[in-house]
């Protein structure tokens, strides 16, 4: 078990005082079998009324409402978690799904719903051709196929940090051959769905104590990866940015169908369009 402290600070600055609209916060680490949440607190300046809800994916989402104008908004999330995931996990995949292709049973097929559906157009079939190249024969080992697909993303796409918001489509990432962890996750999830797997995109934090992992310049950062559903084993984590499998060093915050649903903080303000000056984000992940 590894006990970690996570601090995620976001600061918005404006040229003059503006009125803040409600802000949606997806910052609370997602508890599960491999992660125990010891504590979590969100504070803001100016003060906000914070109400909590659970979204359709089971993520904890807060809504912050503000009463007073301000020229600076700071939102500070602090959490302590116990991470229990194994470094080299073994997955008990059902016999029916060990070999690809396989079929989900009726309940799984229906319940996975939109997590099975491709999200992006591919009129040229270039993306489909790229994905199908990983299926080397009519039937193949399912886990090996997913490992090869994850490795193919990291082998063929160069990691490159990008400050600008937004995510590239799979075709854009294949065209430029570079991307962020968000782009890697979208590419892998879309490829898995094209092959018939149920896949969800995960946002959260990367713990990088030795600074050996891709996606963080220091001991921790925000990060994105993918879970794929396999009968028997359930949701299996793949981090194509680091060509890894399993949840070691990963602290999930939200699971979503579309990467746009995983924004940590979203909201608006009432004021002139030129009022916004900057947004600064600082993330610290350290072992206790």
Automatic annotation (TrEMBL):
Record-linked InterPro entries: Bac_transglu_N, Papain-like_cys_pep_sf, Transglutaminase-like
Any Pfam family: Transglut_core
Domain Transglutaminase-like, chain residue ranges per copy: 173-242
Xref: SMART domains: TGc (SM00460)
Taxonomic superkingdom: Bacteria
Cited PANTHER family: BLR5614 PROTEIN-RELATED, SLL1233 PROTEIN
Name of the featured protein: Transglutaminase
Native species: Rhizobium leguminosarum
Lineage: Bacteria, Pseudomonadati, Pseudomonadota, Alphaproteobacteria, Hyphomicrobiales
